[in-house]
Structures are given as C-alpha cells and as structure tokens.
Design a protein that fits this description.
Distance between the termini: 115 Å
Structural class: mainly alpha
Largest sheet: none
Helix content: over 70%
Shape: rod-shaped
Strand content: under 5%
Order of helices and strands: HH
C-alpha cells in the first residue's frame, strides 16, 4: 500500500511535469508567432522598398522619354487641361 507522503510526492511530480510541458508548448507557440510576425513585417517593408524603386525607375524612364520627345508632354498636358462639356451658351 502506498503511503500518503508517496502519493503527495507523485501528485506534485505529475503537476510539475505537466506544467513544465504546457509552459514549454506555450513558449513554442509564442516563439513561432513572433518569428512569423517578424517575417511578415520584413516582407512588407521589402515590398515597400521594391515599389519605391520601381516608381523611381518609372519616373526616370518618363523623364528620359520626355527629353527624347519634348513635345509629347505638352500635347498630353493640353489634352487634359481642356475639359469638354455638353453645355453650350445661346
């Protein structure tokens, strides 16, 4: 027959082992979440850098194109400045 002291020791041992296992699982979940969130933030920032670089390249290409064809920018600006309306004055 198992004595009261041995039963209590077994109970405490089981509680400590179970708690340690659960704390370890929770720590692993939190660690994985931190890694995933950090990776996503890094990817977002990288996308921002890439979009900024693409916009810069597009602007440089547009500037270069306008330098090669100087009248092209003026014609496009004239077309957008003259709004057309259906109203006519009598």
């Amino acid at each position: 027959m198992v004595g009261k002291l041995e039963r209590n020791k077994d109970l405490v041992q089981d509680v400590v082992e179970n708690t340690a296992h659960r704390v370890g699982s929770i720590a692993s979940i939190i660690t994985t979440a931190i890694v995933d969130v950090t990776r996503e933030i890094g990817d977002l920032v990288t996308d921002g850098f890439e979009m900024r670089e693409a916009a810069k390249i597009a602007k440089e290409a547009e500037t270069e194109q306008l330098e090669l064809e100087p009248g092209l920018g003026d014609a496009a600006a004239d077309a957008t400045e003259a709004p057309t309306t259906g109203d006519t004055e009598s």
